[in-house]
């Protein structure tokens, strides 16, 4: 791994309150004998991210107390109820000044995405101008990688639950798609029925 690749930071968005899950924060859901936030942070680490920032929101104090997140930087998003865009902004703000050249963003509620998909997207990093997205049968999904030159524009465009979608659509010609459908499943855990995906 080159020095530049070492500067790809993992950014885990784990602030949601699980409104459609009866108000159970997704970070605290059990999966494979641990909390979903622990699982997702380890996926970023195992996928080659040199550092991992975790954005917390709903019941952040409980997540801090219960979750084992060694060597992770925990970022509080007091505005988490206003949507994922606020968590993305909080995470990018926290990365500013760290020396990171890119943020590799993973959502806590997608446990079907593992280290192999993260590693593929991370390896596509070229420079702080990079925009990379996992793709599933050619359709853009997560994880995504944002070179630091894009952070200000992404933060400005991130509103509600759209996150970086508007920015990526506006810069579609610059986004490198990395097919991950053979190594990951991009389902979300959003509803009671989706809990069947957890193990």
Looking at this protein, list some descriptive labels.
199 residues, alpha/beta, seven-stranded mixed sheet, 6 helices, globular
Give the secondary structure arrangement, pairings included.
Layout (H helix, E strand, L loop, with lengths): L7 E7 L15 E2 L2 E2 H11 L5 E5 L3 H7 L5 E5 L7 H12 L6 E6 L7 H9 L7 E6 L2 E9 L3 H7 L7 H6 L5 E4 L20
Parallel strand pairs: 1-4, 1-6, 4-5, 7-9
Antiparallel strand pairs: 2-3, 6-8, 7-8
Description:
The chain has 199 residues and is of the alpha/beta class. It contains 6 helices and 9 strands, in the order βββαβαβαβαββααβ. The strands form 2 sheets. Strands 5-4-1-6-8-7-9 form a 7-stranded mixed sheet, with helices on both faces. A two-stranded antiparallel ribbon has the order 2-3. A hairpin with a 2-residue loop joins strand 7 and strand 8. Helix 1 (36-46) packs across helix 4. The protein is globular, with a radius of gyration of 15 Å. This is Nucleotidyltransferase family protein.
